[in-house]
Amino acid sequence: SYETWFSKLVPISLDFGAGVAIIQAPNEFNKSTIERGFHKCLNDAVQSVFGEAFTYKLITPMEKKEKERVPDDDEYEYTFETFIEGSSNKFACAACRYVAKEPAKNYNPLFIYGNSGLGKTHLLNAIGHELKKNFPDKDIIYVKGDQFANELIEAIRAGTTVSFREKYRKADALLIDDIQFIAGKESTQEEFFHTFQSLFDEGKQIILASDRPPKDINPLESRLRSRFEQGLLADINPPDLELRTSIIKKKAESCGITLPPEVLTFLAENLRSNVRQLEGAIRRLAAKNLLEGRPISMQLARDCASDMMGDTEPLEVTIEKIFAAVS
Q: N or C: fewer beta carbons within 10 Å in the chain?
């Protein structure tokens, strides 16, 4: 049931004020089936994370206005100003800022990679916003790798490949998130190769993001891999303790809550995987504080973070911690 009906669901947005999680289903049949047969299951899952006042809304691609182009700054929170820098992402952020100011000058393509939830999508959108602000007349396109592949399939089916190619090859800057999704898709790789080469030859900026470096994207044509590696590779690593602390403080402020020092320390030391994990814990804590009236305490923090703890990443070990544990 999960593979058939749930695996292709895509989270779109979360309206914290209205208490609604917007989720995209691949088609109307999938949507109606979930609403008819799995409503309680999905609704209970949403409420277990965000609180009992939350519910969900399923939409289809036809109901969601496609946004290939980067949204306006006032429509989106992914900007350089809201990106929290630390030692684990400093190089990638600096490279993105440079490309946004000097597109196609030195770093083309720019390839950003790192595990899920570390800020790649945030940086990609931040580049788009900055490009749009600095070069308002330029054609800037943002798309996900699977969306590019699906559009190509539809264009082939409908006989509109000419307009598909024109759309992407006339871009002044092309930003593709999750480029790893073209792996194993021969026709998509063929089309993207020619799109890439056309843009590159015309001096247009290409920015790609992936959950792994080019050498680990398989199966991927060698000619694409070599082109991905010919520009600048910028990796993003999991946030260290200092950065995690800063992120938690920032997210708590945006949710309108104040964390006691011991709660802040507890969350920063125990949630180590990625930024989404930290955001989820803070939203859950804020929801329980607001909707259930529970004070923000260590017990509440443990309740909110318990199902996110216990990952396999080792603790940050120092001599002081070893001495303290042995003592």
A: C
Give the SS3 label for residue 13. Answer: strand
Residue 211, class by beta-carbon neighbours within 10 Å (0-12 exposed, 13-18 middle, 19+ buried)? middle
> Which pLDDT score, from 0 to 100, does residue 317 have?
73
Q: What digits encode the pLDDT tens for the residues 44-60?
A: 998 888 887 788 889 88
In the predicted structure, residue 125 carries a pLDDT above the cut 80: yes
| DSSP secondary structure letter of residue 182 | G
Q: What is the pTM of this model?
A: 0.68
Q: What is the pLDDT of residues 195-213, one digit of tens each?
A: 999 999 999 999 999 999 9
Asked whether the predicted pLDDT for residue 73 surpasses 50, the reply is no
**Is the confidence at residue 272, as pLDDT, over 90?**
no
Which of these, 146, 210, 143, 138, lies nearest to 175 by C-alpha position? Answer: 143
- From 7, 3, 211, select the one nearest 119 (Cα to Cα): 211
Determine the average pLDDT of the residues in 96-108. Answer: 94
pLDDT recorded at residue 275: 82
**Residue spans of beta strands (DSSP E) within the chain:** 10-15, 20-24, 55-59, 110-113, 140-144, 173-177, 205-210, 232-235
Is residue 281 within 8 Å of residue 304, measured between CB atoms?
Answer: yes
Are the C-beta atoms of 98 and 107 separated by less than 8 Å? yes
Nearest to residue 128, comparing CAs of 174, 162, 183?
174
Angle at Cα 297 formed by Cα 293 and Cα 302, nearest 5°?
105
pLDDT confidence of residue 70: 47
119 in Cβ contact with 227 (< 8 Å): no
For residues 276 and 254, give the distance between their C-alpha atoms in angstroms, rounded to a whole number: 15
DSSP state of 69: S
Please give the Cα distance from 109 to 205 (Å, whole number): 7
CA distance 179 to 169: 17
Dihedrals phi, psi of 10, to nearest 5 degrees: -125, 125
